[in-house]
Design brief:
- By secondary structure, this protein is α/β, with parallel strands linked by helices.
- The chain has a domain of 228 residues: Vaccinia Virus protein VP39 (Rossmann fold), CATH 3.40.50.
- It contains 13 helices and 11 strands.
- The strands form 3 sheets. The chain has a 7-stranded mixed beta sheet, with helices on both faces. Strands 1-2 form a two-stranded antiparallel ribbon.
- A hairpin with a 5-residue loop joins strand 1 and strand 2.
- Helix 1 packs across helix 13 and helix 3 crosses helix 4.
- The longest helix is centred in the C-terminal third of the chain and has 15 residues.
- 42% of the residues are buried.
């Protein structure tokens, strides 16, 4: 087994074997949650997902971890035990899709994806891990005055798990992105007092400043209209701790850093849009007709909607939420801060806090990257959960080193 030290001096496993607490990752996708939990000291033993492209990515980056590619409805606890090689599971983690409650799309209460959490609950009941961690969109917290949240809490209570929840902002934990999410944690162990990690970054006393977009991607080269090069030289040596983290064990050249020209309409608008500005900064005469109609409200003031469409990212701040549509500047805040193009796959992955050695395979890269849990957010939660589990100070392989 190989070992590496992260930028904070924590000894880390490569995830293929070891003595860390065991985690099973349901709805694992491309592996952002597993990657962060691995960095924290957990040992991923099984992944489950139906997306063949995401599964290919997961297998490539988590060698030796078996992945069930298929419908979670057909997965059983006994199958998970067999693949994990143990019946002593510390954590079941995952983000069952609840896209019907997403604030980035139409909210549809009866979307069948909203009820995948029932299979998460079922497998927690069958496996009986010491704890569970469930990540999801923050819209489920308030939809129908919290009814969906209450259903989740009641379902876990019914199988004997105490639970708690909180909202988190990924930027508060060193991720260069304003990504809001909700976390549920729970346990069947009486001695575990449920709590969540405190933010490490922000504007308050004692906090590190937020990681900005410039700090996240500043060493990646500009494309200068060469959109298709499969590999490019880094623009500079790593500048600052985030770039050091991102390039740890990375190849000597940047991969997945590709783009394409903007459409004629988008290029016309982009010429008027400065850093930290969106569609509403363009003159009304160059706006598409549908936006001219939405320009003002009854009192003549400018409407405040659509402000992040065609938005050019501000390098001095974290990015906005990276969604599955980050290659489409008409859909949100994805204009590169210095060039008239959408951000690249690698730039999006950097905003999600994937290190550069993390390779995405197959197709549908925007879906794989946009749907992922940011690894550094997962790491922060994982470090805290290890403390709750009472193993953090007793595992020699994961102790803090000088």
């Amino acid at each position: 087994m190989t070992e590496a030290h992260d930028s904070e001096g924590v000894l880390m496993s490569d995830g293929s074997s070891g003595s860390g607490p065991v985690v099973i990752d349901l709805f694992c996708g491309a592996g952002g949650l597993s990657e962060g939990l691995r960095q924290a000291g957990f040992q991923p033993r099984v992944g489950v997902d139906f997306d063949k492209h995401a599964v290919s990515t997961y297998r490539h980056n988590h060698p030796g971890v078996p992945v069930i590619e298929g419908d979670v409805e057909k997965v059983t606890g006994e199958e998970l035990f067999r693949l994990a090689g143990t019946r002593d599971i510390d954590l079941i983690a995952g983000g069952p899709s609840c896209q019907g409650f997403s604030t980035h799309g139409k909210r549809i209460q009866d979307d069948p994806r909203n009820f995948l959490f029932k299979h998460f609950v079922r497998l927690v009941d069958e496996v009986r891990p010491k704890m569970f961690l469930m990540e999801n969109v923050k819209g489920m917290l308030t939809y129908a005055k919290g009814e969906f949240r209450r259903q989740i809490e009641a379902a876990f209570s019914e199988i004997g798990y105490r639970s708690d929840f909180t909202q988190v902002l990924a930027a508060d934990f060193g991720v260069p992105q304003k990504r809001h999410r909700i976390l549920f944690i729970g346990t069947r162990i009486d001695d575990i007092e449920l709590s969540f990690p405190a933010p490490t970054h922000g504007e308050g006393a004692g906090l590190k400043p937020y990681v900005t977009l410039a700090e996240a991607i500043g060493d990646l080269p500009l494309m200068e209209k060469d959109y298709t090069a499969s590999k490019r030289k880094y623009a500079s040596a790593p500048q600052g701790p985030y770039q050091v983290y991102a390039r740890s064990s990375a190849p000597t050249e940047v991969t997945m850093h590709v783009g394409r020209p903007l459409s004629k309409q988008a290029a016309t608008l982009a010429a008027y849009i400065g850093q930290g500005q969106g569609l509403r900064s363009a003159p009304i005469e160059v706006l598409p007709e549908r936006f001219k109609k939405m320009r003002t409200i009854a009192n003549g003031q400018l409407r405040r909607d659509c402000t992040t469409l065609y938005y050019r990212l501000d390098p001095s701040k974290p990015s906005y939420t990276i969604t599955c549509n980050y290659k489409n500047v008409a859909s949100g805040p994805f204009l590169h801060p210095f060039e008239d193009r959408a951000i690249s796959h690698r730039e999006a992955a950097r905003c999600q806090s994937f290190p550069d050695h993390y390779e995405f395979l197959g197709a549908s890269f925007p879906r794989q990257i946009g749907n992922a849990v940011p690894p550094l957010l997962a790491k922060a939660v994982g470090v805290h959960l290890i403390k709750l589990l009472g193993v953090g100070s007793h595992r020699q392989r994961y102790k803090r080193v000088a």
